Structure formats: structure tokens, C-alpha cells
Amino acid sequence: MNKLKEKLHNNEVCLGTHVSLNDPVITELMGNVGFDYLWIDTEHTAIDLNCLQQHLIAARAACVSAIVRVPCVDQVRVKPILEMGPDGIVFPQVNSYQLAKTAIEACMYPPKGNRGFGPRRAIQFGRVSLSDYYQAVDDNLLRILQVENVHAVEDFVKIVTVEGIDAFIIGPCDLAASMGHFNDLRHPEIVSAMRHVIQTAQKNHIPIGVSFGACTYEDILFWHDLGVNLISLAADTDLLLHGAEHYLKEMKKCFHS
Fold this sequence. Notes:
By secondary structure, the protein is α/β, with parallel strands linked by helices. The chain has helices spanning 3-9, 24-31, 49-61, 75-83, 97-107, 130-140, 150-154, 156-159, 172-178, 188-203, 217-226, 236-255, and strands at residues 14-19, 37-41, 65-69, 88-91, 142-147, 167-170, 208-212, 230-235.
């Protein structure tokens, strides 16, 4: 079992951040900081397949787990990403039981699913035997579904029954928007929906987390108190921006005072 998946199954807290820029040096740099994992995003970024592979190579060099968010629940689009051997796959906008089932089946070989067989980097280009890979692949891949729509909340009691789900991630911004409270993440209806999802996942012994941008300590404490144990905050762009702003402010303080 990969180390990130093992930590989650042991109910340990896992801390990560997002990668959105193309340069794989970013993944190597942030991977050496000490995060439990990096979330490489191909849903909202310009990261293509070739660029993604370079990020995964950099993550391995930094000995950090790497999970990849795919653009949508699509067996064809997720297939080449699986062949690259990421530690986990994140499916966005999984808004129904049927979509959850489709997502999980896309990650698993028959008879459990319908993934086509053709691993490349995932078997170290032939150093790992196909039989060994087949026996271990389900334990070595973290399958994560995002809950970010009111329809997912309404169907969640059924969604958690899909076999093969390793974790859930709440997408609070899209969830709030779908409930008519855009950018109002503390609205009582949004908090109630998130509590329902978190408690339902926990009752079914499935780890659950959140993906969010740069935020304050109080925001982090808010997620902590809700009970998540997989938390992805900020991104390379946030860290670069805030670092640049901080050092410019310090220089101005010294030279313009």
C-alpha cells in the first residue's frame, strides 16, 4: 500500500498543497518541504500529459506522494494518467451514485472495473512484472472523489456505498455556489451540508478532506474542527505571490522608512 493511502487508512492527518504551474522544479522544491502529498491539478490549469509526467518524476525524486486531479469523470482521459503511476486520482464534480461508480470502475481492472490494460511508467517500463502490478495496483492507488455540488450531498448516503472509494474531498467553493451561497462558506446551510458529508463518510470509515486556497490560521482551524483529516491548502501561485509580497514589503520597510 502506498504511504499516503496507508496513513489515511490509519486515520492519520495528511497535509498537502496544490501544484498548478508547469515547471516540475516547483514539485521538486515543494516536495522537499515536508508535505505529505502534492495535488497536481489538471482540471483548472495548463498542465498537459507531458508536463504532468515531468511533475510525477519530480515528485518521486523528492520522495513525496503525488495525487492528480483529472478534468472530469472520463475513462478515456484518466487512462493515460493512470499509466503514469500517480499515488492517487482525484475526480471532480462526482454528483451522483452512478457517477461515483463510473469513476471507480475507470480506475480498476476487470472484473472490478473496466480500465484498459497498458501500464507504462506505472510498471517502471517493464521492471515490475505485469502479474505483480495487477496484484498490487488496487492497494497502491488512492481513489478520491470530490463532493462539491448539492446533488452530491443529497445522494451522499448512497455514494458512500460504492466499493473502492478510498477518500472524499469537499470542494467548498463549488458546493456553496451550487447551493446559492457563492463565496459564503460559513453560511449555516453550507456548514450543515459539509457536516452531513463528513459525518456520513466517517460513519462508513472513509477518510474525508477538503481542498481550498490560501487562507488564515482561523480558516485552517475551522476545517480542523469540522473533522477532516486530508487537507489541501494554497497552491504554488499563492506561495509565490505571498512570498514575493512579503519580501518586497520587508525591503520597502528597510529602504523607504
